[in-house]
């Protein structure tokens, strides 16, 4: 069962040879102020106008290694298979160049497959990257065990809660956020076990006739 497979991956010991990495992605609107906010001057709070101007969207690709307390956030204009493949290659070659295999735990988005590598790169390069991966998917409609989603929720609250007008600004904020989180060795305290899944998610298991 995919759920137990994913939960067993999180029980593996931490090691540089086979790091466990959880990819995730989220889209954010870019919003410009029509009028600049009035900054807080006690006792008056910061004042923000209701009107804003839409300035497109960006997609944030997050790669979170929970056992090493490390995350990388990359910004792209879209979330195509090409974007996904390029971000994955960047992370593999820059962060995990010495790893024998990178274990990916991810959901079932249509971009999250080895075919994306072959659409983005020449066959030899796609094969090089594919051979470095060990992929584990969550159950369909059950992406919550992907720990990158928890990290993205934290990022949204801590770095993206205010209006952001352009891609440059959002890259500055997410880069500063990831550096601070990495320095502080912040991580996710994941405690859900296979034994608990067999009780709490019993309805999702196949029925066995006696």
């Amino acid at each position: 069962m995919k759920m137990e497979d994913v939960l067993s991956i999180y029980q593996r010991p931490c090691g540089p040879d086979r790091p466990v990495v959880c990819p995730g992605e989220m889209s954010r609107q870019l919003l410009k102020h029509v009028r600049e906010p009035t900054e807080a001057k006690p006792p008056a709070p910061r004042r923000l106008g209701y009107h804003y101007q839409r300035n497109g969207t960006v997609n944030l690709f997050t790669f979170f290694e929970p056992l090493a307390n490390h995350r990388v956030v990359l910004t792209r204009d879209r979330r195509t298979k090409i974007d996904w493949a390029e971000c994955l290659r960047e992370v593999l070659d820059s962060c995990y160049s010495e790893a024998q295999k990178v274990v990916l735990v991810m959901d079932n988005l249509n971009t999250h497959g080895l075919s994306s590598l072959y659409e983005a790169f020449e066959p030899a390069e796609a094969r090089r990257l594919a051979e470095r991966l060990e992929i584990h998917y969550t159950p369909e409609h059950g992406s919550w065990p992907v720990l990158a989603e928890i990290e993205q929720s934290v990022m949204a609250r801590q770095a993206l809660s205010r209006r952001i007008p352009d891609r440059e600004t959002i890259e500055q904020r997410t880069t500063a956020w990831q550096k601070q989180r990495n320095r502080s060795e912040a991580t996710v305290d994941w405690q859900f076990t296979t034994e608990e899944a067999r009780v709490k998610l019993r309805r999702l298991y196949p029925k066995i006739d006696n």
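The radius of gyration is 20 Å. The beta strands are 20-33, 52-65, 70-76, 102-106, 133-137.
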